[in-house]
Amino acid sequence: MHSLPFPSSLNHNRSPLELVHSDLHGPLPVASHSGYKYWITFIDDATRFRAVYLLKAKSEAFEAFKVYKSWAETQLGVKLRALQDDKGGEYMSNAFKSFTELAGIERRHSTRNRPQQNGLAERANRTMGDVKIEK
């Protein structure tokens, strides 16, 4: 049985940080010299600006999000309003949930086994998959 194709979305948010897509990639087959095995991407829906953070463990995803949020809000002078993710365990901790609730960030999760719903971040990670991490 196969699924019907997802329609491409022509609706993009118009304001920076209105919606940010995120996905975690890894583990890589071989860690970098510094021990990095994963990366996490944050992509602004309006501008398509992409930030990538290298991680040694999935458990570092929450800290990477806090760093990204602080940096992006400082640079743009606006608050992050919504985060789209694939509902991976790295996004579902109680600490992550509490932090986003207190910050007023709407959480959007794609349905299991439907990576198309978080396609912007999934595609970015696939595109970067062939890049070597030299850090």
CATH topology: Nucleotidyltransferase, domain 5
Strand order of the largest sheet: 3-2-1-4-5
CATH class: Alpha Beta
* Oligomer class: single chain
Global shape: globular
- State the helicity in percent bands: 25-40%
* Average pLDDT rating: 83
Low-confidence parts lasting 5 or more residues at pLDDT below 50? 1-8
What's the CATH architecture?
2-Layer Sandwich
Structure characterization notes:
The protein has a single domain (20-128), classed as 2-Layer Sandwich (Nucleotidyltransferase, domain 5). It contains three helices and five strands, in the order βββαβαβα. It has helices at residues 61-76, 94-103, 119-128; strands spanning 20-25, 38-44, 50-55, 82-85, 106-109. Strands 3-2-1-4-5 form a five-stranded mixed β-sheet, with helices on both faces. The N and C termini lie far apart (43 Å).
Task: Set out the fold topology.
Blueprint lengths: L19 E6 L12 E7 L5 E6 L5 H16 L5 E4 L8 H10 L2 E4 L9 H10 L7
Protein name: Integrase catalytic domain-containing protein
Organism: Agaricus bisporus var. burnettii
Keywords: DNA integration, DNA recombination, DNA-directed DNA polymerase, Endonuclease, Hydrolase, Magnesium, Metal-binding, Nuclease, Nucleotidyltransferase, RNA-binding, RNA-directed DNA polymerase, Transferase, Transposition
